Amino acid sequence: MFEVDARGLSCPEPVMLTHEAIRDHGDEQIKVLVSEPHTRDNVEKFAKSKGKNVSITEKGDEFELIIG
């Protein structure tokens, strides 16, 4: 599983990192870590726009998105 640590980053950077991960590792699951609700929503919308399934887990003040 490829991991993107986008915690503490502001949009659009987490979405750009997710785009690169999907482009380069789209055949495997990708874990994206973010720290803001709006960033979680933006990454989720982007991944779904690329035809990916997304599951989200809240871990304390952070979010873990599994894209597959």
TrEMBL record:
Domain UPF0033: 3-67
SUPFAM superfamilies reported for this sequence: SirA-like
Gene3D superfamilies: TusA-like domain
Pfam assignment, any one: TusA
The protein, known as: Sulfurtransferase TusA family protein
Organism per entry: Candidatus Copromonas faecavium
